Amino acid sequence: MAYQDALALPGHVTLAPGVVALPGFTGANGGLPPNSAAFTSPGPGPLSSWLPVWLAPLLILVLGVIGWPWVASTFPGRRRIAAALSPAVGLAAISVAAIVTDAVGLRLQGWTGVVPVMAALGGGLAMLARSRRRGDGGARPAPIGRRAIPASGHITDIARTSSP
User: Are 116 and 92 in contact (CB under 8 A)?
Assistant: First the structure.
């Protein structure tokens, strides 16, 4: 139906310039007028636009603290690698702990949202303590890139199976 035809109908309601409600489709009465400032004003923002800029390094630091025990127990003696990997491993540990927490039946809302963070940190600290107790915490591994080759110059003791 064209706009001019809608204006010719008895019982039409003009909502705004160029907008007509057909009879029977006028909606409920009693709302704010359409030109009210409540509908058109964006209002103040809830957060400063600089807040994410300042919180990003803090988030990387928190994830690094959670991931450090996991990486330190996995790569003993490799501090630079541990520092580089710890935020990613921290996020992975929190993610796995959150999936397990949700699967157990605790919904991740309110105080139970902290459970995966504490579980990830506690699990990492337990793993680090276990690796230190075993005595491999201070082990200095060979540099990455070098292969351990026997003195003879070729790899021996390879399990061979006879073909039938």
Answer: no
95 located within any domain = yes
Which pairs with CB-CB distance under 8 Å and at least 24 residues apart come from 74-79?
A: 75/141, 76/131, 76/136, 76/137, 76/138, 76/139, 76/140, 76/141, 77/138, 77/139, 77/140, 77/141, 78/141
Asked if the structure places residue 148 within a domain, the reply is no
Q: Is residue 40 part of a domain?
A: no
Residue 160: phi and psi, rounded to 5, are -115, 140
Task: Retrieve residue 112's tokens.
Answer: 């139970």
Long-range CB pairs of 135-140 (<8 Å, 24+ gap) are 136/76, 137/72, 137/73, 137/76, 138/76, 138/77, 139/76, 139/77, 140/76, 140/77
Pick from 79, 81, 73: which is nearest to 134 by CA?
73
pLDDT digits (tens, 9 = 90+) for 75-105: 888 889 889 999 999 999 999 999 999 999 9
Domain enclosing residue 63, as ranges: 51-134
- Residue 10 resides in a domain: no
| Model-wide pTM > 0.85 | no
**Number of separate domains in the chain:** 1
